[in-house]
Write a structure and sequence with these properties.
Layout (H helix, E strand, L loop, with lengths): L3 H6 L2 E7 L3 H13 L5 E4 L15 E2 L4 H34 L1 H4 L6 E5 L10 H12 L5 E2 L2 H5 L9 E5 L3 E2 L2 H14 L3 E3 L3 E7 L4 E9 L2 E14 L15 E10 L10 E4 L4 E8 L2 E8 L5 H4 L8 H15 L9 E11 L6 E6 L2 E5 L5 H18 L1
Parallel strand pairs: 1-2, 1-11, 2-8, 4-13, 11-18
Antiparallel strand pairs: 3-7, 4-6, 5-6, 9-10, 10-11, 12-15, 12-16, 13-14, 14-15, 17-18
Helix pairs in contact: 2-7, 2-10, 3-5, 3-10
The chain binds flavin-adenine dinucleotide.
């Protein structure tokens, strides 16, 4: 039962954002920037954000050679260029808001390992560079095959290495902590353990019912707002059914510290389906490696956080034979986890009004570090305009 005081001060807001990942927080921040006197509440069902934003690999990327070529085949050149521009602008916004040091941003460059299957993509590198010149003002991609042996990769498997100086990495945990503090500093209210069950629109606004456990009994609390943003990513189907959002489970592991790693940077393989990087700390250098959704598209189109044994096995084998063949005996997995991404069919963002008082902000499509701030900005803009 709520007290008089709680009813007076904690239940009614101008805007409620459901989902406390990077898009939800970015939406809340833009709302407070544009309308500082408005009250904004973010509801997050997990104790910590529990979708993709705290689980990812920390690549600050705009798309590898094979990924961008695949995007052009699906969406055409103009749309692909627009989305690359949005990724670059989104990353700049994130860095500007939080500061490079706070989020551990390092522009150390990105590479793509081309295995036999994708080596033909080299034939299109020059034309892609030409297309991207309007954005980067210089070549975005360079062939660096001398680095294959220098980095210690298997020369039997890696046919070419493509470098982009514009990509970088962040510390995902520090970024999300900083984004939360930034939002709180703007006056955003953020509640965790608050799973939205139901949205109901009224004549004057909308209500969100939350269930929470209190002393062994489940209680329902109803929050009220003028407008609501749904930033629940892969979990949005609970609220809206006829929407083009497919879940995709991302499998990741990190190794124990290893001696003698020779590569640094972020590394993509196979249109972004695989990715790895070095993670350095006082304890030493580890490898974070993830991906493999494409090995079993049906089972990985899930919101279940469980691990898939066969994909983990495949990743380990890939790590030992292709990435660190000379150091394979040291390549021992320390920790495994999964995160749930959301994908639209054409990999483009979806920001739209789904009813009179509800706006959906979705569609980082596996590149939330770069895109999240921009999608949040667009979601907030639509809330303010509608
Ligand atoms: C393994 C992995 C690796 C990745 N690597 C990278 C990378 O290197 N670089 C990159 O740019 N991107 C990467 N991504 C993608 C990136 O993390 C996402 O694009 C981004 O985090 C999506 O942000 P979001 O806010 O849309 O969704 P999410 O972070 O999923 O946030 C949605 C939130 O809504 C909450 N929620 C859901 N339902 C409810 C409800 N009913 N009530 C209240 N709260 C609810 C969830 O708990 C969740 O916290 C990776 C993702 C994964 C899983």
């Amino acid at each position: 039962m709520l007290s008089f005081w709680e009813r007076e001060s904690s239940i009614r807001y101008d805007y409620i954002i459901i989902g406390g990942g990077i898009i939800g927080l970015s939406t809340a921040i833009t709302l407070k920037e544009r309308e500082p006197n408005s009250s904004v509440l973010v509801l997050e069902r997990g104790l910590l954000p529990s979708g993709a934003s705290t689980k990812n690999a920390g690549f600050a990327c705009f798309g590898s050679l094979t990924e961008l070529l695949a995007d052009i085949r699906t969406n055409g050149e103009h749309t692909t260029l627009t989305i690359v521009e949005q990724r670059i602008r989104g990353l700049a916004m994130l860095r500007q808001r939080l500061g490079d040091q706070t989020i551990g941003y390092e522009q150390i460059g990105g590479y793509e390992l081309l295995l036999e299957k994708h080596v033909d993509a080299l034939a299109e590198l020059e034309s892609l560079n030409l297309l991207l010149r309007g954005i980067f003002k210089t070549d975005a991609f360079h062939v660096k095959n001398d680095k294959i042996a220098a980095f210690g990769f298997s020369e039997a498997h890696v046919r070419a290495l493509v470098y982009s100086p514009f990509e970088g990495q962040i510390h995902t945990g520090n970024m999300m902590q900083a984004l939360l503090h930034y939002a709180l500093g703007k006056g955003v209210m953020y509640l965790t353990g608050a799973e939205a069950r139901h949205i109901e629109e009224t004549n004057t606004g909308a209500e969100v019912s939350i269930e929470h456990n209190r002393l062994h009994s489940t209680k329902q609390v109803i929050f009220e707002a003028r407008k609501i943003a749904l930033c629940t990513n892969a979990f949005t189907n609970r609220f809206i059914h006829d929407i083009d959002i497919q879940p995709g489970r991302g499998q990741v592991f990190i190794t124990r510290p290893m001696e003698g790693l020779r590569f640094n940077g972020i590394f993509h393989v196979d249109e972004g389906y695989y990715y790895f990087r070095r993670v350095s700390s006082l304890e030493g250098d580890r490898i974070l490696f993830g991906g493999g959704r494409n090995l079993s598209p049906e089972t990985e189109a899930t919101t279940d956080f469980g691990l898939s044994y066969s994909i983990q096995q495949y990743l380990e084998e890939f790590l030992r034979t292709i990435i660190v063949p000379d150091l394979h005996a040291q390549a021992k997995v320390e920790k495994r986890w999964t995160g749930i991404m959301g994908f639209s069919t054409n990999k483009l963002p979806i920001v739209k009004k789904t009813s009179e008082r509800v706006v959906l902000g979705f569609g980082c499509n596996g590149m939330g570090i770069a895109l999240g701030s921009v999608i949040g900005e667009r979601t907030a803009q639509m809330l303010l305009e509608s």
